[in-house]
Amino acid sequence: MNTLHIIGGAVSILGALFLLLASIGLIRMPDVYNRMQAGTKATTFGTIMFLAGIGIASPGWIPKLIVLVVFIVLTNPISSHILARAAHFAGVPLADRSVTDKLAEHRQKAGDK
């Protein structure tokens, strides 16, 4: 086993740990908005690290992995943002410990509901 395989495996394990932390965040966070934030940030970074580890171990896959990383970076945060706004407009409540609701404040200033 060469050095690149060991380094790639270590980076992939680091990415898998971030994915594990994302799954724990999905269970432990108090409301849908916090769950989305925990899931999106950790899964985006964890997936990128996991794919980077594969790229280090198998350099021939790097062009395909770059396409995957760009797709994940562009779609994961955007889809999470849209889902959070849809949940907010549908009336899904924030956690009791939430301090501010900037979207509700903005809607009140704009004269919406």
Kindly state the mean pLDDT as a whole number? 89
Note the main sheet.
none
Intertermini distance: 62 Å
Unreliable spans: none
Query: How many helix segments?
Result: 4
Assembly state of the chains shown? single chain
State the share of residues found in helices, binned by percent: over 70%
Total beta-strand segments: 0
Q: Encode the helix/strand succession as letters.
A: HHHH
Judged by helices, strands and strand pairing, the structural class is mainly alpha
Total domains, how many?
1
Strand-residue fraction? under 5%
* CA radius of gyration: 18 Å
Overall body shape:
elongated
Structure description:
The chain is mainly alpha-helical. It has one domain. The protein has four helices and no strands. The longest helix is centred in the last third of the chain and has 28 residues. The model has no long low-confidence stretch (mean pLDDT 89).
Task: Summarize the model shown.
The chain has helices spanning 3-28, 32-57, 62-89, 102-110. With 113 residues, it is an all-alpha fold.
What is the strand and helix layout of this fold?
Elements: H1 3-28, H2 32-57, H3 62-89, H4 102-110
Helix pairs in contact: 1-2, 2-3
Features:
113 residues, mainly alpha, 4 helices
